[in-house]
Amino acid sequence: MVNSPETSSAPAASTRTAADEVNALLASYPDFPQDGILFRDLNPVFANAQAFKSIIDALVTRFSGTFDAVAGIEARGFLLAAAIGYAADAAVLAVRKGGKLPGTVLTEEYDLEYGSARLELEVGQLPAGSRVLIVDDVLATGGTIAATARLIERAGYVLTGVGVVLELAELDGRSRLGDADVHTIVSV
Ligand code: AMP
């Protein structure tokens, strides 16, 4: 089955904000990966050099000076975390899906908008008390980021922020993130 993207209207100006870039390039696929899910595809944003730079700059600026490390959630969060870490001179943590990390790992089980999953983090990557920013592409129900926040805190670090490109507001994922400093570039 082929899912046709519903793309937003074309961008108008050359001086667009990060939110403008996301709104212009975001693609939405009904009934993917299963019926009833409107899948939000940010790959067209990542695939546009100006848009990618714009969203990275926006997140680095918003959280400037508040973090020592940035934790990216597999897999699209890795793209964001690597770029933010480089731009902000910060360390990078890879929060991986279950069963992929060696050595001593912390594990958290959680529910997804569709299905359930397991996330893991290796222990001892950073000094205790390190300030960590979590980043991911989409905030849906919040289960993924809430599980990551638990991993960060169990590892002995301090969660200082959550940066997300796209928030699906009707799913109210923010309510699962306590008093975390959450910033999303676009909320739909
Ligand atoms: P959640 O735990 O429900 O907040 O889901 C967030 C994670 O699942 C993110 O890593 C997203 O990449 C992915 N995700 C959940 N729902 C969607 C959606 N409607 N479109 C695209 N990605 C989604």
From TrEMBL:
Catalysed transformations (reactions): AMP + diphosphate = 5-phospho-alpha-D-ribose 1-diphosphate + adenine
Keywords noted in UniProt: Cytoplasm, Glycosyltransferase, Purine salvage, Transferase
EC code(s) of this entry: 2.4.2.7
GO molecular function, one term: glycosyltransferase activity
A matching Pfam family: Pribosyltran
Subunit structure: Homodimer.
Record function comment: Catalyzes a salvage reaction resulting in the formation of AMP, that is energically less costly than de novo synthesis.
Protein name (database record): Adenine phosphoribosyltransferase
Protein's organism: Leifsonia kafniensis
